[in-house]
Amino acid sequence: MSPRPAPTPSQPPTRPSERTVTDLAPYPSPEERERELDGLVARLEGAGHTASIHNYGESVAGRPLRAVRVASKRNEAAARTEPAKVLVCANTHGPEFIGNRVAHGLLEALIAGQPQVAALHERAELWVAPCLNPDGYARTHARGGQGQLRDLRPNERGVDLNRNWPLPPGSRRLPIPGAGSSRSGDATYRGPEPLSEPETAALDALMHEQGFWACVNLHSFMGTLFPARVEDPASFRVYRELCESFTDRQTVHRYRRVASRRFDTYTGEQEDHQHHNHRCWSVCVESFPLRASFRQHLRAPSLFWRFNPRDPEPWVRNEVPAVATFLGRAAERSRPEVRTLRTT
Ligand SMILES: [Zn+2]
């Protein structure tokens, strides 16, 4: 028997798993992300906050769906009225890791006493659900961010979780791009029926249980704000003001609000459901502007690097005070009035 040839120094043996972990740095692996969240809660407690992790369900593949609750200071002072509860969500789409960084960054900023986050904490109970689609996150990570949108974006059953929400009563969905597809295998497949997925059903149950007053849903990439679609002028005006309060706090990159009262269609997105079915002021934030993404890579080496900045930190700093300001301003208002929509 002849000895096997040893690998030559110019061709070191590499395992794909080692390579993919390096490829997505500085973004954490799923396990690192969960450990980081546990660490943030421990540090919040160490800094004198009342913080806990709330397991609100399980993903299709059995991964825990976790949210952090931080009690309001006002609650601890036994104020007569209950503080408003506000929610930050991220990563409902597998490859949008920057949203998760901003969500964790908000908790980090609370520990550091960042002024806008501290002001929010004075008046509201803060909930952060930093990874709504842990299976999509894990799949994206395992593939080193390679693949098409339809491979990385959905949950484990191929459903786009942000097209799986019920439409507001009396509303309709037009067959336009992005409105959600009825075909399994499409990037925006909306699933067999609204709330068919354990990830959306569990979050909806949490919304019913907690009655959130306001919510920010973190996505990428675009550099835009999409408030819930509303037809009544009063709510439309409130969203304009809330979005202005958001962009006023963005010191480096200010995002554009995309809203219309006339565009008569709904898509099964989370913020519309939250506004119309849960009376919650809600906005979708698409971090990382188009221009910045293309400046980073004219031709991105993977889908992942189209959606995420190489260095998340400047974007976390750009978004965190803005997210806190939006939620704080929304918590000062009364909850949205729900009106019967025009039926067509
Ligand atoms: Zn998204």
From TrEMBL:
Biased composition (Basic and acidic residues): 150-160
Pro residues composition-biased segments: 1-15
Keyword Metal-binding recorded: no
InterPro entries, alphabetized: Peptidase_M14 (IPR000834)
SMART domains in UniProt: Zn_pept
Disordered: annotated span: 1-34, 141-195
Chain ranges of the Peptidase M14 domain: 25-344
GO cellular component labels: extracellular space
Keywords carried by this UniProt record: Hydrolase, Metalloprotease, Protease, Zinc
Keyword Protease: yes
Cofactor: Zn(2+)
Gene Ontology terms for molecular function: metallocarboxypeptidase activity; zinc ion binding
GO biological process: proteolysis
Family, per entry: Belongs to the peptidase M14 family.
Name recorded for this polypeptide: Peptidase M14 domain-containing protein
Organism: Plesiocystis pacifica SIR-1
Lineage: Bacteria, Pseudomonadati, Myxococcota, Polyangia, Nannocystales
